């Protein structure tokens, strides 16, 4: 597999999917101009692509600011404690990086988890993350592999996403 995520994660476990998989690239909205309607419309378009191409799995990277994973330990603890770690069947293989479980050992009060909006959207649809974070030195970010098994999206949410696209 090729693409941005493959630069940082071993994606060979994704071969478990027998239908197409789709990598979603960067998704950025100018905070001064953006609003949730743009975000919802984009997810509606993605839903249309999934339906038209019989996509079984969406994936990409969720970016956290900076190259010190420890600064995001509150978010990583939240992900570990709330069953957001991907199943072994499609989780990227660990070859290095920061294991999220290390955040569980950090007993400092890291405050509330500050998760990127795109990751929050994935989680709301049933998405999961890798058990480790890696660094993108070019962009100065800490990355988590993020995946969504389309078959596990709650039916009501999928219907709402389809309705968003149909309305535009």
From TrEMBL:
Q: Which reaction does it catalyse?
A: a (3R)-hydroxyacyl-[ACP] + L-ornithine = a lyso-ornithine lipid + holo-[ACP] + H(+)
Task: Name a biological process GO annotation.
Answer: lipid metabolic process
Q: In which pathway does it act?
A: Lipid metabolism
Enzyme Commission number(s) from the entry: 2.3.2.30
Q: Name one GO molecular function term.
A: ornithine-acyl [acyl carrier protein] N-acyltransferase activity
The UniProt entry, under SUPFAM superfamilies, shows: Acyl-CoA N-acyltransferases (Nat) (SSF55729)
Q: Which UniProt keywords apply?
A: Acyltransferase, Lipid biosynthesis, Lipid metabolism, Transferase
* Primary role: Catalyzes the first step in the biosynthesis of ornithine lipids, which are phosphorus-free membrane lipids. Catalyzes the 3-hydroxyacyl-acyl carrier protein-dependent acylation of ornithine to form lyso-ornithine lipid (LOL).
Query: Can you tell me which family this protein belongs to?
Result: Belongs to the acetyltransferase family. OlsB subfamily.
Q: What is this protein called?
A: L-ornithine N(alpha)-acyltransferase
């Amino acid at each position: 597999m090729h693409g941005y995520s493959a630069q940082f994660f071993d994606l060979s476990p994704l071969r478990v999917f027998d239908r197409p998989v789709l990598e979603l690239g960067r998704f950025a909205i100018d905070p001064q101009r953006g609003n949730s309607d743009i975000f919802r419309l984009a997810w509606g378009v993605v839903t249309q692509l999934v339906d038209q191409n019989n996509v079984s799995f969406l994936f990409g990277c969720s970016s956290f600011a900076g190259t010190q994973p420890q600064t995001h330990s509150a978010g990583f603890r939240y992900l570990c404690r709330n069953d957001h770690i991907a199943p072994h069947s499609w989780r990227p293989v660990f070859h290095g990086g920061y294991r999220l479980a290390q955040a569980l050992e950090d007993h400092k009060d890291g405050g509330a988890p500050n998760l990127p909006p795109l990751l929050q959207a994935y989680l709301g649809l049933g998405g999961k993350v890798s058990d480790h974070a890696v660094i993108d030195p070019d962009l100065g970010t800490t990355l988590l592999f993020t995946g969504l098994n389309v078959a596990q999206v709650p039916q009501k949410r999928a219907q709402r996403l389809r309705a968003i696209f149909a309305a535009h």
